[in-house]
Amino acid sequence: MQMNPRGARLSTALCGALVAALLASCGGVDPIEAPALRSGSADFSRLAFIGEDVESPDTVNPSLWRQGQLCASGGLFQVTDRLYQVRNLDVSNLTIIEGDTGLIVVDPLISAETAKAAMELYFEHRPEKPVIAVIHSHSHVDHYGGVKGVVDEADVEAGKVRIIAPEGFLEAAAAENVLVGNAMTRRAMFQFGGLLAPDEKGTVGVGLGIGVSLGTVTLIPPTDTITETGQKMVIDGLTFEFMLTPDTEAPAEMHWYIEELKAVTAAENCVHTLHNTYPIRGAQIRDPGAWSHYLNESIDRWGAKSEVMYGMHHWPVWGAERVHEMLSKGRDAYRYINDQTLRLANHGHTPVEIAELVEFPDSLASHWALREYYGTVNHNVKSTYVKYLGWYDGNPATLHGLPPEDAAKNYVEFMGGAAAVLEKAKESFERGEYRWVAEVVNHVVFADPANAEARELEAAALEQMGYQTESSTWRNAFLTAAQELRIGTLSLPFKGTASADSIRALDLSMLLNFWAVRLNGPRADGHELTLNLVLTDTRQEVVLRLSNSTLSHSLERTDPTASATITTTREALNRMAADESTAEAEIEAGEITGDPDASGLLELVGMMDEFDLWFNVIEP
Ligand SMILES: [Zn+2]
Question: Could you tell me the distance, in angstroms and rounded to a whole number, from the CA of residue 595 to the centre of ligand 1?
Answer without folding.
Answer: 47
